[in-house]
Amino acid sequence: MDNDQLLRIILERFDKVDMQFKEVLNRLDSIEKSQQDDVKGTLHLISKKVDNILYDVDYLSEKTGKHDTKINNLEKRIQS
Question: Its domain of life (predicted)?
């Protein structure tokens, strides 16, 4: 086997390795993108749940305030 043949074989192998490396990079890019989409979806879901909880807390706080006012009025009536 002469040097030219050996060089061709080596170059062909490097070309194959280069192609495989590009495939790996493409797969990693797609995995990274899908994970980002998953994280975005999870954060959106958490945001909606937090919004619902805040709404419930505001509602209950308003109701508690009204009940406290009524209790206070009743206590004043009883004391008078």
Answer: Bacteria
In angstroms, rounded to a whole number, what is the distance separating the alpha carbons of residues 58 and 53?
Answer: 9
Residue with tokens 């490097």: 14
Reported as type and span, the H/E element at residue 66 is helix 3-79
The Cβ of residue 61 has, within 10 Å, a number of other Cβ atoms equal to 10
Read off the pTM. 0.52
Estimate to the nearest angstrom the gap between the alpha carbon of 32 and the chain centroid: 13
Task: Enter the tokens of residue 39.
Answer: 């994280």
How far, in Å, CA of 63 to CA of 74, rounded? 17
Over residues 40-55, the pLDDT tens digits come to 899 999 999 998 898 8
